[in-house]
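Entry 12.
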Amino acid sequence: MSTLRNKVQLIGNLGNDPEIIDLEGGKKLAKFSIATNESYKNNKGERVTDTQWHNVVAWGKTADIIAQYVVKGKEVAVEGKLTTRSWEDKEGQKRYTTEVVCDELLLLGK
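Predicted 3D structure (C-alpha cells):
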C-alpha cells in the first residue's frame, strides 16, 4: 500500500504547447497544463461539464519526449506525484502553486 502514497494519474488535453527549458548540465524541464473534464447532470437534469486545469512538470528523458511529440490539444495520460512550492513575487507577496511532477507519460489519440 505504500506505493499508493502521493500518486496521481490524469488523462487530459494540453491547453498550450509545452514550455521547454534547457538547464545547465544538459538537463531539460518541460512545463505544461492539462484539462480534465467531468460531466454530470445537475438537479434540473441538465448536463454540466466541469473542467479542471492541472499544472504538470517533467524532467530529463520525459521532458525530451514531451519536447518532440506533445503539442497544444494533444491528449496525454500522466502519472506522477503532487508537489507544492512557494516563492515571493515582486511585491513581496508569498505565492504557492501545486504541480504534478510527471514520472510517466503516455501519448493518446491520433
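Annotation: The mean pLDDT is 92. The helical segments are 60-69.
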